[in-house]
């Protein structure tokens, strides 16, 4: 399979030739799938913006997409805030046939489950993201969400309540683990990722630094109304593709 030219910088020695797909999988695969783990990925401009013209797409590139796809491939559930699903026009989480075969060979379900997080339930039950999903999606919501919208969504998704006015990430993680979904991957966006970090639940984050300056008022990759004490992280690896840096950090133990 052709992948973008991605080289390992750290841990050294730096690779003189592009990494093969299996090398990347080894770098990104969880050490022990039986242990629940929450990871995230995000892309930022050099000056810290999570968007260009309101979307993250302008920051990505082939190498970032390879990592994005591999993180989906390796997860049991992909958790996405409704804002990102709406803004980015998410489609159903369908993997290619060869990735489905790879997952089956590695004793994984053919597809990860998509979990959409929403308090308002402003989600269209006829949207392809749910009706064309290869696995019944999960909608994670609150006790105060609108009842009619909930009833409509229950026809196409498992609707799970995890909090009163906002989804509590701790209840969210417990609910997913109770379903056997231990490798929990979130693609954000910033509000959801901010909540996960504030709850001190993030074990790992893959951050791509896109070689550009946004210079405007774009959001950070994670935002939360309250500042936290700085959480120290361990640098697991740094990859280079052209001028793009792709890193993985994990919680210090
Ligand atoms: N650079 C990156 O890596 C990256 C990644 C993802 C997204 N983005 C960008 O980020 C922007 C969207 O930002 P955002 O902060 O709005 O994204 P978001 O976190 O995906 O969406 C916020 C919405 O998701 C739901 N939500 C999130 N956390 C919740 C919680 N704890 N409880 C209940 N509902 C929750 C709510 O939906 P309801 O309104 O339905 O209640 C909330 O309004 C877009 O421009 C997107 O392109 C960038």
Automatic annotation (TrEMBL):
Pathway: Cofactor biosynthesis; riboflavin biosynthesis. Residues 38-234 form the Bacterial bifunctional deaminase-reductase C-terminal domain. GO terms for molecular function: 5-amino-6-(5-phosphoribosylamino)uracil reductase activity. Signal peptide: none annotated. One of its GO terms (biological process) is riboflavin biosynthetic process. It comes from the Bacteria. Keywords: NADP, Oxidoreductase. Transmembrane segments: none annotated. InterPro entries: DHFR-like_dom_sf, RibDG_C, Riboflavin_Biosynth_HTPR. Coiled coil: none annotated. It holds the Pfam family RibD_C. The keyword Translocase does not apply. This is Riboflavin biosynthesis pyrimidine reductase. It comes from Frigoribacterium faeni.
């Amino acid at each position: 399979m052709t992948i973008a030219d991605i080289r390992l910088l750290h841990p050294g020695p730096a690779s003189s030739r592009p990494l093969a797909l299996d090398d990347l999988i080894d770098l990104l695969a969880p050490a022990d799938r039986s242990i629940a783990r929450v990871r995230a990925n995000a892309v930022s401009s050099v000056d810290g913006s999570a968007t260009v013209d309101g979307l993250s797409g302008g920051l990505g590139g082939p190498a970032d997409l390879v990592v994005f796809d591999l993180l989906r491939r390796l997860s049991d559930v992909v958790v996405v805030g409704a804002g990102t699903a709406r803004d980015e026009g998410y489609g159903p989480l369908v993997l290619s046939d060869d990735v489905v075969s790879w997952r089956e060979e590695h004793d994984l379900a053919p597809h990860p489950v998509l979990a959409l997080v929403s308090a308002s339930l402003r989600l269209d039950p006829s949207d392809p993201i749910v009706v064309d999903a290869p696995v019944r999606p999960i909608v994670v919501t609150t006790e105060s969400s609108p009842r009619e919208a909930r009833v409509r969504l229950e026809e196409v998704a498992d609707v799970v309540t995890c909090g009163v006015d906002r989804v509590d990430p701790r209840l969210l993680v417990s609910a997913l683990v109770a379903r056997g979904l231990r490798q929990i991957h979130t693609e954000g966006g910033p509000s959801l990722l901010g909540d996960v970090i504030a709850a001190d639940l993030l074990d790992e984050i893959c951050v791509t630094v896109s070689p550009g300056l946004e210079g405007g008022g774009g959001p950070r990759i994670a935002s939360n109304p309250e500042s936290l004490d700085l959480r120290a992280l361990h640098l697991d690896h740094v990859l280079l593709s052209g001028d793009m840096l792709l890193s993985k950090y994990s919680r210090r133990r």
